[in-house]
Design brief:
This protein folds into 2 domains: about 5-40, no CATH class; about 75-175, Alpha-Beta Barrel (TIM Barrel). Helix content is about 35%, strand content about 15%. It contains 6 helices and 6 strands. It is globular, with a radius of gyration of 19 Å.
């Protein structure tokens, strides 16, 4: 168990967090599951995401069997739940990597130990390229693939990468 996981287990959760039932006293994160709250009984604040573990496991097995039977690889998008645990479960089932929407989401998954990512959206200009370089400087073993749709973005990334020797190579996906 990582230090980060241990440090966050007993964080107090209250109504400022989506889904927490209004009017309840704050609870330690590790006590939430023991409350028996269900999204469908009307007690929890909506919108929220919930997971039927059995259905999730079945769907992952079905999807991975389909993908593998066609000789393909997938990198499921993590942006909807932004759950590192769900992304890790998909990787364990055979996903090639994980897709994220932006630099912040890439940081979350890199910090959680994932190293093969597709960054699905344009990042912006030179300042964003420098932010991405600063992030990847902490993860030299990362494999990041990023969409580019202009020579200006390619130039910004090239410039940011030329300023640092500690960066992993980028995979550029041309739109």
């Amino acid at each position: 168990m990582s230090d980060l996981h241990t440090a966050t287990e007993n964080v107090l959760i209250d109504e400022r967090v989506r889904g927490f039932p209004p009017g309840n006293p704050p609870l330690a994160l590790d006590a939430i599951g023991k409350q028996g709250w269900k999204p469908y009984d009307g007690g929890m604040a909506l919108p929220l995401i919930s997971l039927d573990r059995q259905a999730f496991t079945h769907n992952v097995e079905l999807m991975m069997a389909y993908v593998k039977s066609h000789g393909a690889d997938i990198a499921p998008h993590a942006k909807t739940p932004m759950s590192t645990a769900l992304a890790e479960a998909l990787l364990a089932a055979g996903a090639w990597g994980t897709t994220v929407a932006d630099i912040r989401q890439a940081a979350v998954l890199l910090k959680a130990g994932q190293r093969r990512l597709i960054l699905a959206n344009e990042i912006g200009g030179a300042a964003a390229a420098r932010r991405l370089a600063a992030l990847l400087g902490h993860y030299p073993d990362a494999e990041l693939h990023i969409f580019v749709d202009s020579t200006a973005l390619v130039d910004a990334l090239r410039s940011a990468w030329q300023q640092r020797a500690d960066l992993p190579p980028l995979g550029l996906l041309v739109e």
